[in-house]
DNA sequence: GCTTGGACCTGATTGC
DNA sequence: TGCAATCAGGTCCAAG
């Protein structure tokens, strides 16, 4: 998409999670996409108009790329076309379709020169694989938090980009109980947790992500990290380290999976 | 202030 | 078989 103009844009409904920006189609059509990027779970596209197109997949959003030449991409998994909400057609004939059954995703436009004031990213914590993230950072960020460590790690203002799966997996690797209050983690536990978070994220990226029911990459290929889950969605199964039974509990309305013996 | 719980949606699965 | 209840990868916002 980079360096190409939007030849046409189809917007098939008025809203996703939020309403589309006013005159969304007109503000994209004919503009050149200068650069694609990502911050936390937000995708960004800098436009020749001076605006940034911000996109979020929510839980079930998916972009599928189809090249003009048939057969250039293979679609391993199909999606219901009833949920194709936006189609970008680029000038070389490639189409990029946004499909999202639950419509928890969204698209917004924001002026590039004021992008540091984009509200949804202003309070973001550091990226796990960046130099700003470390055990020392966790020591500081968690020291006054009265919420369970599981909830704290899901808080994007503490650390950006971790979701429910990877928080569960990182806590298991670090042998930290999800029920432990965040303020009791600084010190030795944070020293284990920071590298565990890095490992989980790096391995999941290498495996192409986690495909439970919806996730697929832009050419339709599924991820493989779900085959390496140690605790997530393994309630009642044996812990790979100690053999004890993996348990499930609900924290902040989200399922947590953990080993009661390994994680303290 | 910080923290929690409900809301936003559809679809798949489970249990009666 | 058919229906209702439950659950799902995320984020926002009102209420406590």
Question: Can you tell me about this structure?
Answer:
It contains six helices and ten strands; from the N terminus they run βαβββββββαααααββ. The chain is α+β, with helices and mostly antiparallel strands. It has a four-stranded antiparallel sheet with strand order 1-6-7-5. A four-stranded antiparallel sheet has the order 2-3-4-8, with no helix packed on it. Strand 3 and strand 4 form a beta hairpin. The protein is globular and about 60 Å long. The model has no long low-confidence stretch (mean pLDDT 93). The chain binds a DNA duplex (16 and 16 nucleotides) through helix 5.
Could you give a short description of this structure?
By secondary structure, this protein is an alpha+beta fold. Helix content is 20%, strand content 22%.
Number of domains: 2
The ordered H/E elements are EHEEEEEEEHHHHHEE
Low-confidence stretches: none
Output the CATH class name of the largest domain.
Mainly Alpha
Rg, Å, rounded: 20 Å
Structural class, by secondary structure, is alpha+beta
Question: How many helices in DSSP terms?
Answer: 6
Q: Care to count the β-strands?
A: 10
The outline comes out as globular
Task: Report how far the terminal alpha carbons are from each other.
Answer: 47 Å
Oligomer: single chain
CATH topology of the largest domain: Helicase, Ruva Protein, domain 3
Layout of strands and helices, then pairs:
Blueprint: E1 6-11, H1 24-28, E2 33-39, E3 42-47, E4 51-56, E5 62-66, E6 84-90, E7 95-99, E8 106-111, H2 119-122, H3 135-142, H4 149-154, H5 164-174, H6 188-206, E9 247-251, E10 254-258
Helix pairs in contact: 3-6, 5-6
This protein binds a DNA duplex (16 and 16 nucleotides) through residues 17, 41, 56-60, 80, 83, 100-106, 120, 144-147, 151, 154, 156, 163-166, 209-210, 212-215, 252-255.
């Amino acid at each position: 998409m980079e360096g190409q103009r939007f030849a046409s844009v189809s917007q098939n409904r008025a809203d996703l999670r939020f309403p589309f920006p006013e005159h969304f189609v007109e503000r994209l059509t004919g503009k050149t996409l200068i650069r694609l990027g990502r911050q936390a779970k937000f995708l960004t596209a800098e436009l020749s108009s001076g605006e940034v197109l911000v996109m979020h997949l929510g839980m079930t959003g998916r972009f599928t790329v189809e090249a003009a030449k048939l057969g250039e991409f293979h679609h391993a998994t199909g999606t219901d076309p009833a949920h194709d909400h936006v189609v970008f057609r680029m000038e070389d004939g490639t189409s990029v379709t946004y499909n999202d059954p639950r419509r928890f995703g969204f698209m917004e436009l924001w002026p590039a020169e004021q992008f540091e004031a984009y509200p949804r990213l202003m309070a973001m914590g550091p990226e796990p694989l960046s130099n700003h993230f470390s055990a020392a950072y966790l020591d500081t960020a968690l020291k006054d938090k009265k919420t369970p460590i599981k909830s704290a790690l899901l808080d994007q203002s503490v650390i950006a980009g971790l979701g429910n799966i990877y928080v569960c997996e990182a806590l298991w690797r670090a042998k930290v109980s999800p029920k432990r209050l965040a303020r009791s983690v600084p010190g030795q536990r944070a020293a284990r947790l920071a590298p565990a978070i890095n490992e989980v994220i790096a391995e999941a990226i290498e495996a192409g992500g986690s495909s439970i029911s919806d996730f697929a990459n832009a050419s339709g290929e599924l991820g493989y990290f779900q085959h390496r889950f140690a605790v997530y969605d393994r309630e009642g199964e044996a812990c790979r380290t100690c053999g004890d039974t993996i348990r499930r509990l609900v924290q902040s309305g989200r399922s947590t999976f953990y080993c009661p013996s390994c994680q303290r």
